[in-house]
């Protein structure tokens, strides 16, 4: 049987149409993906933490005596100068009123002290008389000795009696002083509050600022009774700030003294700089917002930014810190969104000639966005980010941006 050319042409066209329909029907559409080019750039690993500012040196001013603190001469925010600004005044406590029994006892004590004073004064008068007599006898004996009428022994006896008389006068004077002091002490027991106010030349004990700075807080602005050691106010310098950050113990062990930090979310227009100065040696158990027990401790940071860049930052302000744990300038890195675990190995999909190829890699340090590539990739490789479960090695892919 001989095929005519027309028949052959129609047959070929039909076969081609069948093959084309089969290809369109059974072909696999390329999977739209997002691609990222692997590059070398600086990589910074940070530990993020919330913190609170505080003034380094806060001076707690307390009452040195028991009495009445007068109305505060300063208010919160007032500037003070060391040794010059009056920050508080305390009036010494006044004696209370006596009941009838205590009053009688005090009056009896005063009478007893007055009698003792009279006795001491009488003893002093007698001692002075004896002293005058001994002195007169000594002088008369001296005259007799010069005339060779009396012996030297008699003169020595007169000198001894004069010395004893002088000592007796000194002792009598001392007893008079003691009696006067006792009388003055017992008379104070009879004083009333009105008598104390009239006899006090200076009203109050004035307290000056212990350091330059501003008043941070005042315990009470009104007049009130206080005891020794009662807090009156706090003084500090807002320009001398530090930051206290609350860290997990597992994060703190990875930090060293001198680590730098970026201070953000403090309310200012630009981030501030800080440096780690100390870490608490002991952690404390705290309950998180989720009810989980955590071991946390305080880390102290000095703010290194100039004071003029943080003029509005004060004591007790909330801040957010990004603390540098590790930094390297030239690191081959891949997005965390591109890596996944396959058979306990880190894996990525590498785009090659429109297909996806699985590639096992080794990673090192990582932050919240990128991971350091130790092995398995080179600069310029393009990897699939956010791969879905349907993407398999060898699948045809197309970059999502090419569809727009």
Automatic annotation (TrEMBL):
Keyword Coiled coil among record annotations: yes
Pfam families assigned to the protein according to its UniProt record, in alphabetical order: YknX_C
Occurrences of domain YknX-like C-terminal permuted SH3-like (ranges): 331-397
Coiled coil: 103-130
Keyword check for Coiled coil: yes
GO cellular component, one term: cell envelope
Keywords annotated in UniProt: Coiled coil
Localization per record: Cell envelope
Protein name as catalogued: HlyD family secretion protein
Organism: Yoonia sediminilitoris
Phylogenetic lineage: Bacteria, Pseudomonadati, Pseudomonadota, Alphaproteobacteria, Rhodobacterales
């Amino acid at each position: 049987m001989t095929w005519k050319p027309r028949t052959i042409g129609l047959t070929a066209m039909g076969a081609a149409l069948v093959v084309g329909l089969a290809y369109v029907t059974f072909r696999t559409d390329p999977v739209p993906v997002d691609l990222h080019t692997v590059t070398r750039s600086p990589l910074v690993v940070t530990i993020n933490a919330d913190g609170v500012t505080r003034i380094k040196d806060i001076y707690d001013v307390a009452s040195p005596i028991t009495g009445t603190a007068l109305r505060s001469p300063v208010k919160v925010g007032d500037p003070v100068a060391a040794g010059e600004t009056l920050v508080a005044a305390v009036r010494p406590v006044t004696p209370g009123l006596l009941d009838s029994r205590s009053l009688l006892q005090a009056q009896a004590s005063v009478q007893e002290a007055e009698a003792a004073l009279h006795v001491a004064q009488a003893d002093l008068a007698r001692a002075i008389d004896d002293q005058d007599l001994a002195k007169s006898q000594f002088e008369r004996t001296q005259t007799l000795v010069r005339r060779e009428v009396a012996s030297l022994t008699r003169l020595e006896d007169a000198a001894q009696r004069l010395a004893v008389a002088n000592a007796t006068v000194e002792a009598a004077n001392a007893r008079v002083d003691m009696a006067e002091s006792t009388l003055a002490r017992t008379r104070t027991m009879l004083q009333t509050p009105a008598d104390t106010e009239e006899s006090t030349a200076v009203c109050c004990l004035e307290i000056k600022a212990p350091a330059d700075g501003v008043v941070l807080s005042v315990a009470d602005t009104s007049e009130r009774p206080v005891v020794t050691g009662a807090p009156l106010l706090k003084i500090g310098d807002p320009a001398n700030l530090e930051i206290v950050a609350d860290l997990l113990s597992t994060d703190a062990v990875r930090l060293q003294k001198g680590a730098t930090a970026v201070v953000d979310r403090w309310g200012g227009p630009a981030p501030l700089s800080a440096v780690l100065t100390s870490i608490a040696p002991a952690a404390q158990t705290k309950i998180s917002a989720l009810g989980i027990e955590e071991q946390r401790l305080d880390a102290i940071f000095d703010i290194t930014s100039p004071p003029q860049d943080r003029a509005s930052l004060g004591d007790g302000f909330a801040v957010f810190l990004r603390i540098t744990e590790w930094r390297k300038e030239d690191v081959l890195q891949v997005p965390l969104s591109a890596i996944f675990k396959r058979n306990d190995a880190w894996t990525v999909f590498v785009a090659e000639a429109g297909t996806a190829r699985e590639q096992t890699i080794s990673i090192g340090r990582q932050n919240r966005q990128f991971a350091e590539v130790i092995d398995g990739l080179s600069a310029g490789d393009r990897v699939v980010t956010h791969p879905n479960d349907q993407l398999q090695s060898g699948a045809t892919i197309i970059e999502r941006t090419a569809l727009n």
